[in-house]
Each structure stands twice: as C-alpha cells, then as structure tokens.
Fold each of these.
Amino acid sequence: MKYISTRGAAPDLSFEQAMLTGLARDGGLYVPDTIPTLSEGDIAALAGLSYEETAFRIMRPFLGDAFTDDEFREIIAKAYDGFGHAARAPLVQLAPGHFLLELFHGPTLAFKDFAMQLIGQLFEASLTRSGDRVTIVGATSGDTGSAAIEAFKGLDAVDVFILFPHGRVSEVQRRQMTTPSEANVHALSVTGHFDDCQARVKDMFNDFDFRDEVRLAGVNSINWARVLAQVVYYFSSAVSLGAPQRKVSFTVPTGNFGDIFAGYIARKMGLPIDKLVVATNQNDILHRCLSTGAYKPDGVIPSISPSMDIQVSSNFERVLFDAYGRDGKAVAQLMDELKSGGFTVSQGALQHLQDLFLSGRASEEETSATIKRLRETTGELLCPHSAVGVKVAEENLDPAVPMITLATAHPAKFPDAVEAATGLRPGLPPRMADLFDRDERVTRVENDLAEIEDFMRGKIAN
Ligand SMILES: *Cc1c(COP(=O)(O)O)cnc(C)c1O
C-alpha cells in the first residue's frame, strides 16, 4: 500500500512514513493510491464483533507490512482500553429513523480520542522498533490538544508540547491539558489567539534546523492515520442498523472535514452509505461551497460550537483530489488561488461532490433550541456541536434510509452552552469527577518563536 500526495509532487510513502510525516513536502496531504474494498460478506461478518476486532479488520489492509497482525491487535487493544463505555461507540435512537452515534466516551470526552489514542500507540510501537525519538507539537483551540496529551502522556519515545491560547479555552479543556503529571507532557499557555499558536507551530516546521534538531512531528487532523481510525465507527454503526443489506446515511458536524472524509472512505470501501450530510455552524464555508461551488473564506465568527469555527477546512483538499480525477496539478492550482482569496470548483467536480454530499447550517439560536428540544423529547443532552448535526440531519431525513448523526463531544465539555439552553449543568462522568481537584502544571509563554523553541530545547535535553 502506497501513499501519494494530493498535489502530485512529493515522494510516495509507506503507511508508517506517511503517519510520521504528516504534511507532504509539496504542501499536499497523503492519501492511499488505491482504496481496499470489503465484499458484502466481509461487511456482514462484522455483525456482533467487538469494536476492537472491527477496527482490526477495517484498518489492516491500509497498513501494508508496518506491523504484524498480533502487534496491530495489541495496539488497538491499548488504544481503546481507557474508554468509559464497553461498546466504545454506542448508538442510541432519537426518533423513528434517526440515531445518534455517541463518540464521546474516550478519555477527553470528544471523538478525537478515537484517532489520537490509536495514533499514540502506533507512534510508540514504530519508534520503539526504530530506536528514534520525536517531538510532537500541536496548536489547539481545546479538543485536539487535550486528546493529544492524553494519548502521548507517559510514552517513552515522544515528548509532547501543546500550545493553547491563554484564557481562551474552557476550564475543562484547560485542566485536561494541565493536570497530567507525566514528565513528557508540556502544556504551553500562549499570550494570543488560536491563530497565533497555529502560526508559531507552522514557524517551527519551517525552521528546518530546529525541526531536524528535535525531530518535530505533527498529529493534526490532516494526518492520514487519524482519518483511518475514524473509518471504523462508520462500519460498526451501519452494521448494527442492518448494513450491508440496508443502506444508511450519516450527518457529521464538520470543521476540518476530517471526520466526514472518513465516512467518504468507508463508502469507497464498499459500505452502502446513501448520503453524507455536512453540518456546519454559522461558519458555513463548506455548506456554501457544496451549494454554489464557491470556496471563499470570509472571517471566523466565534460560536458556541468552537471546535467547528474554521475558515480553511484542510481535509477538504482530499475530496477535491478525487473530484478532480486525482489530478494533483489541478489541486495545487486551486490551493494557490486560495492563497489569494478563494476558488470556484469546476462544474464537473461540483457535480461529483453533490452526488454524494448534502449540506446545511445551524445558527446559534437553532443550535440552542435543538439542545433544549432534544432534552425534552428524548432526555439526551447534546453538546453544541452534536446539536448542529441533529438540526441539519432532521432537515435531510429520508423515510426509506436510517440516519446516523455523529455526537462529537460530551455535553460536560461545553457546560456553559448546555446550561444556557436547558438550565441544566451537565456533570463530568464519574471517572473524571476529580478533574477540578487535580494540580495544574502549565508554562506561560509569550507569542515568540525563539522563546518557545528555547523552552522546548531545555525540556527535551532533560
Ligand atoms: C474537532 C471537532 C469537530 C470537527 O471535526 P472535523 O474532523 O474537523 O470536521 C466537531 N466537533 C467536535 C466536538 C470537535 O472536537
């Protein structure tokens, strides 16, 4: 299995190399050169299996000879061991024909744990074998950083540094990053906004001396291994509703297009998915693009679903690559146009996208109203991101095809928005009820590349 860049001008890599590299050297994203498919019989045979065994069967063909079957089974077992629900990704019914896939039972209460826990174990296994060490660095507005710290804490072959904007993450998110006591974890509270954190991380990758010196590695959502881990729950949930005999549709609250792109891969692997519905908040660039073809960023407006407040949806490049017939030059051209303000998807490519993807948006008021109404009609407390999904899903229900909406975070991760909508303040699950009593460890830094790099050097040397 080879991995190729969406811009067509970087070397082909193996699974392991693509995972450790992240972004391709031509600025593109790695994708498999061919997508392995499962027969109807293979899919039917997933019925009743554990989440871990399903994960093994879905992901195995993408790994090539990176790990033996036994090694990979052990990696998966360790990855999902810390989840708070035996089913890992349980499905609950909201209404006739409408189901909610709860992806928030991982250690940091957001779906990002599914991919990050796996990637942590994959990195550790790969680096232990090669004897290398790497430095993981990431910028976060909250969920990615906490998931990364939880996944990499205490591992021997990595140091992990997470930059978050000082005073601009929720208290639960901050504490999830600052309370782990493992010496290889470093939470940096940066004077500035998320964009400043992201810019400093980019600067580090462009500082080639530093990059080589500390062996910098990235685990942001463009990492192919993260996408792959998310393919699994599309299969497990669809099979529990009757696939492959019955089709299903999915609605996915979307920011960087990573989670929904995993659904697209599941469909290419042979899962009978009817529609994939893109659900955005008021930052609706993807909804506008899928409706009109015009992809024009116009400024982030902060919302109550902050993990979807994005302007540039990085994984969208992967689906454009397919929509343009896997023409890397065409994709590189679009990304050049994006630098000077935006691009318009060609008629043919837009048709290709609209054949599969539907889309919709939820305003702030609609999101709050959905949290309130679902509490009343089902007893389910939704986080604001999941509520965006439910609202858009309801507009796209088809009586003939069950709809599965992805619930991407636990309501307790966004207690203010949930309380404002319902009057109820959601509590943390018992296994982390002491989060507010744990000691915090955090380093305050200025928004200054040299200062941050010096701090990192000092920590890595010790
Ligand atoms: C990251 C995140 C999203 C968006 O996921 P993408 O893969 O970027 O589309 C949605 N909801 C929550 C809670 C998240 O943390």
Amino acid sequence: MPRTDAVLADPRLGTAAERLGRALVKAAVVRAQERARSGEIPPAAVADAAVAGLPEHATTLRPVVNATGVLLHTNLGRAPLSPAAREAVAAVSGCADVEYDLATGRRGARGRGALEALRAACPAAEDAIVVNNNAAALVLAATALAGGREIVLSRGEMVEIGDGFRIPELLAATGARLREVGTTNRTTAADYAAALGPETGFVLKVHPSNFRIEGFTAEAAVAELAPLDAPLVVDIGSGLLAHEPLLPDEPDAAGVLAAGADLVTASGDKLLGGPQAGLILGRAEAVRRLRRHPLYRALRVDKLTLAALEATLRGPEPPVARALHADVAGLRERAERLVKELSAHGLAVDAVDSEATVGGGGAPGVVLPSAAVALPGGYERPLRERRVVGRLEHGRLLLDLRAVPPAEDALLERTVLAAAGAVAAREEG
Ligand SMILES: *Cc1c(COP(=O)(O)O)cnc(C)c1O
C-alpha cells in the first residue's frame, strides 16, 4: 500500500491541494487507500483513484439541474441567478468598494448602487433598504415599528411559509403582540379599524403565497386599510416589483405602494429572480425608522448579495422571468429534440405535456403549461445522484423543461445518457 505522503507527492494532487486545500485532497487519498485495502483496486491505482475521487469544489454544496417543473424550489436554492448576476458576484468577491468612495477616498454609502437600482425599478418607493431575507424584513419592521406593542393582522393571514416557518411566531418572537382580527375566511376593513388604539404599532397584511381559500371569503384591500390611523405594512412575499399579467392575483410592490401602503416587504429570490434578500420599500420616513434601528446592522446584506441584486435589477431578464414567460411550443420543441437525441442512443423516452408551477414562492393554484421528457421511474435515483432532479408522476420520471434554462439542455442530455448506463447495469445485475 503506497504511503499517504508518497501519494500526495503526485503533481496532480499537489495542484489540487492548492485549489481545494490539503484536507480535502488527503481525504480523497485515504478513501482510495481503503478501496485498495479491500481489494477493489490495485495498490498501484491509488493515486489515479484519489484524483478521480476529488471533489469538484471546496464546498459540499453542489449545482443541480431543476427539472421538477417548480420554478422556485426552496430546497434547490430558489431563484437561479442570471449570468449577469453571477458575473457580478464573482467580480466583487475579492475586495470591493462596498462602503468606500473611490472618487474621494472617503467612506461611501453602503450598497448605494443596489438601492438606486431598486428605486429605479420601483419608482413608487420613496426609499428602500435591503436585509438578509423577507423574514428579516418582517423582524425589523416588527421591532422598529411595533416595539412590543400590537401588530394588527387578519386571522386569514396567519400563515406558515414552509418547514415550520410561521409568520405569527416570527413576529411574536420580536416581543410584539399579535392582535388578530376577523375570521379565517372573512376579514373586513371594519375589523381592523375596530382593533386600532394606543397599543397599535402597525397593521400588517400578509400575502398567502402558498395556498388559496375559495368560497365565502372576504379580505380588506390595501386601499381600504391605508386610510386607517396606523402605519400599514404589506408583506407581498414574492418580490414582484410591477404587475405581472401572467400572475393576475400576485401582488406587486408598485401596486401596493400606489394603493397607500407605507412599507412593502418581499423576498429577493422568489419572482424577482435574484439572490436571497429581504427588500423593504416605501415611504421615506418609515424606511428611515428601520434603517436607524440598531437591529438593522445585524440584518444587513453583504457585498455578494448587493452585487447580485443590482445586476439582477439592471441586467437582462433573470432565469425565473424567462421560465415564467417561456411559451409552451418552444418547450415542446426542446423536449422533442432531447427525445430524438436520446432515442438515437436506444433509450425508451417520450416527449409529454406537463404542468409546471411557480412553487412556494408565490402564485398558488396557477398552472403553467409545460413540456417534459418522460423516462421510466428507475431513472429517478441515478439522475438524482448525478444532480438532475425531476418529478415522479404515475411511476414515470418527468424532466420538466420549464425551469431548466435552455443552456442546460446539453448537460441534461449527457446526464441522462450517463444514467442510462447505471440503469442498464442495475437491470443486468
Ligand atoms: C416566502 C415568504 C416569506 C419569507 O421570505 P424569506 O425571504 O424566505 O425569508 C415571508 N412572507 C411571505 C408572504 C412569503 O411568501
């Protein structure tokens, strides 16, 4: 058995150690030695096996192809960044002028470019700040505007966003008291008005972004709540800055501010298509109160987020918007092209119609017609292990193309072919 030091002297592993760090390379060597010890590979092949077993990156986070048909998949990192945003992140990942004015040599306003881009994209907002995510935006608003007093909200909007994250619990954790008004299915402006008093911090409206109630329902519109004698904060969830005709029921920041809200909070990595961030837009005075609160310092974002957000706002249409607007005929063509290529290699595949959704990020109940490559269910695991995640439906694996950028079709094809080998080997074995 070759000694670890001797294997590490292999120049390929030396180069890798500079890129990945010695610990990760050594771990690959140890794994290769174990395989040799168990007789799986000859001792002479240890260095080659270690090279083959090196991780691609010094992180265990790995890129994934999202073929689930869910545009915003929280478990898969929500919105993929646009090429412009990725470049911007890479460009400022060293030192950058995040809080330094190169013209004067003095300290500069942190994240000014991103905030200017945000205000330009949403002129209805007098001012804006950016925090870590929408949950942080709500915490900051609750702390700065309610400060242990009451937040008035509808019983129909006491929502759970996912994985046990409940907005009422988050708000209560700040020390604010929740003043519930109305009922699960019906709440009117009069219900809110009756609850206001000296203990009111603000009125909060929350968009139920992952469910819909139907039937005998009523909710108070933003325009009805704006005249009430209390600040009005609206959590729109998805981060649409302007109205999106394809998603008629999804609230947008411009519309909500025009209707009279003081503050809007939203996520940066849902329908806006940018990095994880919490956007807070609205009246100058309300935004100033949040920016001046000591908690803001704990929730602010870093240069990578600022760069990605600004490039998302100023750059070309991000992948989420493209996926949303992609026409189904184009998706079918892509599915048919993939099926033709894969069939030529002898695979039993079909191009089928499919139904995509926006996902937990918004627009519950909206079905987006889509197209998919359908494979036998046995492909699910080998593809997942090769970082392509599809959707099982009636025993078949669908690779829905709506959330897959067209530039990833070639990767998808190569990966299916590689998985076909594994499927065939398992059937033989
Ligand atoms: C997603 C969502 C949140 C949480 O946003 P994060 O950016 O994930 O913290 C809060 N409110 C609503 C209505 C949402 O849809």
